[in-house]
Amino acid sequence: MNNSQRIPAKVVAAVIATGLLSFCGVIVETAMNIAFPKLMKEFNITTNIVQWITSIYLLVVAIIVPLSALLKTNFKTKKLFIAAASLFIIGIVCDGIAPNFIVILLGRAIQGIGTGISLPLMFNIIMEQVPNSKLGMMMGFGNLITGVAPAIGPSLGGLIVTNWGWRVIFFCLLPPLAIAMVLGIWGIEQKSTIRKVKIDLFSLVLIAITFAGLVYGFSNVSSQSFISFQVAGAILVGLVAITLLIKHSFKLQNPILDFKLFKNLRFSGHVLIFFLVQMCSLGFAFLLPNYIQIVNNNSALTAGLIVMPAGLAGAIFAPIGGKILDKFGPKKPILFGASLMAVAIFTFVFIATKMSNMLIMLVYIFYMLGMGMMMGTVMTSALASLTDKEQTQGNGILNTLQQFAGSMGTSLAAMIVAMSQSEKVSSEATAIGSQHAFMLLACFVVIIIGVSIKVVPKKLN
């Protein structure tokens, strides 16, 4: 680790370049949700089919991210970045000119490969090349880049779809992708040693089956009977595959995912915090726009504009949380952030049956301030609990779980609301279902605070 107090310009450029790829990935994901009704009409498809625009992307990302440690060991960082950026651009163009829905899914899968490669690169570069005294701030800055995307994605999507059509969503991302490519080629430098490690194909197959089963199963929770192959069957297949993967990985010297890291209780505790925060955040990303549109009878564009200030606040507070970590250690920003989250979630529990748009916006800002403050800090503290050699594997685990937590959080929230809407999709049923979902998130935040008190140290190692 570089001990200089100054962050080199090339390191900043490398972080921005890799962050922009992840930013574009989230923008497409959140903006395209607004375009679902248009796509359903244009391609004559149903709701459960159109949702595969998101599901196929998350599935591919979840399969590729676990390979990050292996890819980083076998290939130069710059080559990986160029491959990721090129694939993402190919996927974007593919979707922009798609003549049918199958081509759109193909483009989204290609984008998922690009994002899956690039997402861990940003945090690997930060952990390797940023001095310890600036580590928290830079991790927060990295989270800021990706954190802005969910804030502006829905409103940007609504604006573009309303005025120019859904294809423009893809083409408008070409300029930032071009900027990312230039910055990456200039700024990314090789710091780690390259050594050829053979890819274990059996592990790769098990990873694919694991996430295919789990993502597919949880994505169908709200639309299919739980006792069906589409839900319980798929989840069971995923659980069997991950059990075999864990047993198999313990036999390998260089596993794709090193599950031995979970023997480190401090790291395991941070992983649990990280996972539950992601579930809460993606649950909110589904619940609040849904509530604004169905209960308060507003448009999708209005819903996007109402949640946008909170997203921006969360993104801005990410580097602030990092600065607090650099000065005072990780425990204070994590507990303070979790406390803000708890205040917001319990407020939503008590007022869920009758919330105005203004009240939703204000309470959600509190939640996102807390979430933004702690996310980068949790990652930094988690990786600091590992040795330098283990950090790439730890980063891969965190980024892998981030994708799965997003799918699971959205699915559980949708399932709980759908249970209340079983007889009729009414504003009253949606409000009650949302309240029940907020109660589940309240349980999660209590666990987050309890685990944080137990495992988060006052100072980084």
TrEMBL record:
<keyword id="KW-0812">Transmembrane</keyword>
<dbReference type="InterPro" id="IPR004638">
    <property type="entry name" value="EmrB-like"/>
</dbReference>
<dbReference type="GO" id="GO:0022857">
    <property type="term" value="F:transmembrane transporter activity"/>
</dbReference>
<protein>
    <submittedName>
        <fullName>DHA2 family efflux MFS transporter permease subunit</fullName>
    </submittedName>
</protein>
<feature type="transmembrane region" description="Helical">
    <location>
        <begin position="199"/>
        <end position="219"/>
    </location>
</feature>
<feature type="transmembrane region" description="Helical">
    <location>
        <begin position="49"/>
        <end position="71"/>
    </location>
</feature>
<dbReference type="InterPro" id="IPR020846">
    <property type="entry name" value="MFS_dom"/>
</dbReference>
<feature type="transmembrane region" description="Helical">
    <location>
        <begin position="104"/>
        <end position="123"/>
    </location>
</feature>
<feature type="transmembrane region" description="Helical">
    <location>
        <begin position="300"/>
        <end position="322"/>
    </location>
</feature>
<feature type="transmembrane region" description="Helical">
    <location>
        <begin position="225"/>
        <end position="246"/>
    </location>
</feature>
<dbReference type="InterPro" id="IPR036259">
    <property type="entry name" value="MFS_trans_sf"/>
</dbReference>
<feature type="domain" description="Major facilitator superfamily (MFS) profile">
    <location>
        <begin position="10"/>
        <end position="460"/>
    </location>
</feature>
<feature type="transmembrane region" description="Helical">
    <location>
        <begin position="396"/>
        <end position="417"/>
    </location>
</feature>
<keyword id="KW-1003">Cell membrane</keyword>
<feature type="transmembrane region" description="Helical">
    <location>
        <begin position="437"/>
        <end position="456"/>
    </location>
</feature>
<feature type="transmembrane region" description="Helical">
    <location>
        <begin position="80"/>
        <end position="98"/>
    </location>
</feature>
<feature type="transmembrane region" description="Helical">
    <location>
        <begin position="164"/>
        <end position="187"/>
    </location>
</feature>
<dbReference type="GO" id="GO:0005886">
    <property type="term" value="C:plasma membrane"/>
</dbReference>
<feature type="transmembrane region" description="Helical">
    <location>
        <begin position="12"/>
        <end position="37"/>
    </location>
</feature>
<feature type="transmembrane region" description="Helical">
    <location>
        <begin position="334"/>
        <end position="353"/>
    </location>
</feature>
<comment type="similarity">
    <text>Belongs to the major facilitator superfamily. EmrB family.</text>
</comment>
<dbReference type="Pfam" id="PF07690">
    <property type="entry name" value="MFS_1"/>
</dbReference>
<feature type="transmembrane region" description="Helical">
    <location>
        <begin position="135"/>
        <end position="152"/>
    </location>
</feature>
<dbReference type="InterPro" id="IPR011701">
    <property type="entry name" value="MFS"/>
</dbReference>
<feature type="transmembrane region" description="Helical">
    <location>
        <begin position="359"/>
        <end position="384"/>
    </location>
</feature>
<keyword id="KW-1133">Transmembrane helix</keyword>
<feature type="transmembrane region" description="Helical">
    <location>
        <begin position="267"/>
        <end position="288"/>
    </location>
</feature>
<keyword id="KW-0472">Membrane</keyword>
<keyword id="KW-0813">Transport</keyword>
